[in-house]
């Protein structure tokens, strides 16, 4: 191996170690990881934005793991999962007798995360009445427990996340503007799975292997048609939906072959209602390709039916991550899981 090749190999290995729990090599996902690498060494507040199921907690963990706080506490709290009456106590703690049922002193998440990172998921669900106290601890790094006048100092790096549009919430007086600007120091927007279709097959192969191993099953075949259907499906629930569907399919699979969880294999590629212009273009191209038997050029090819040049259609297919089903298989017509177990176990 030459010196340049060795350097490139070492850089690749280093990147794998940095993001060992993250799967995805699409341009959209690589751009996200580049942002994580840039902001992680700082102590700046990070705001992770994106639809439900896009992997916001995973990105928060990556920010922590690549920071100087790695090895210190990583504490998380889903603000939408805690009742309003208890959320203040969860964040800042309370003293014994602070309220009915407070039979002992309790440390809050900010105290628990001292010297480390606090991940507040669904930050848009924090009640307006509690937002000034959160703003204060972010600005001053100090707070008081419920039922106590003693001020506690902490050193906490905050990573917040939400699927809500905080700008609209500010405009409608549903979220404090000063808190929003304090959170929005370094925003990272995660693309939905339908915008990173190149990552779908690697995710499928990974999760099939993970769940098969967990359930003691041997699944070594994923039909190319199933992979094609997965790539075409719009995934409104993003990676979380994909993960749950694969778990269900592995339960139902027998004889070493992956059971397709989508309702209709043939129609699953083109039947979901497109939600974006990009989805509509993808559906139109898939329909033309299937009607032409995946012939691109020539008098009866898909390019002619779409009124495009052959080279233009090929460029659009590459951009949209569309490939002939036979080419999506690892070995003659099926996805091969034999190589998956050789790579580090990575959870999306």
CATH topology of the largest domain: Rossmann fold
- Overall geometry: elongated
The CATH fourth-level homologous superfamily of the largest domain: P-loop containing nucleotide triphosphate hydrolases
What is the average per-residue confidence, as pLDDT, rounded to a whole number?
A: 82
H-E string? HHEHEHEEHEHEEEHHEHEHHHHHHE
Tell me the span between the first and last alpha carbons.
Answer: 32 Å
Identify the CATH architecture of the largest domain. Answer: 3-Layer(aba) Sandwich
What about the largest sheet?
5 strands, parallel
Helix content: 40-55%
The level-1 CATH class of the largest domain: Alpha Beta
* Count of DSSP H/I helices: 15
Binned strand content: 5-15%
SS-derived structural category: alpha/beta
Q: What's the arrangement of strands in the largest beta sheet?
A: 2-5-8-1-9
Low-pLDDT stretches: 1-15, 265-271, 326-334, 338-348
Summarize the structure.
The chain has about 350 residues and is of the alpha/beta class. Helix content is about 45%, strand content about 10%.
Task: Please characterize this protein's 3D structure.
The chain is of the alpha/beta class and 348 residues long. It folds into two domains: 3-191, Rossmann fold (3-Layer(aba) Sandwich); 196-342, Helicase, Ruva Protein, domain 3 (Orthogonal Bundle), CATH 1.10.8.60. It contains 15 helices and eleven strands. It has a five-stranded parallel β-sheet. Strand 6 (142-144) and strand 7 form a beta hairpin. It is elongated. 33% of the residues are buried. Mean pLDDT is 82; it is low at 1-15, 265-271, 326-334 and 338-348.
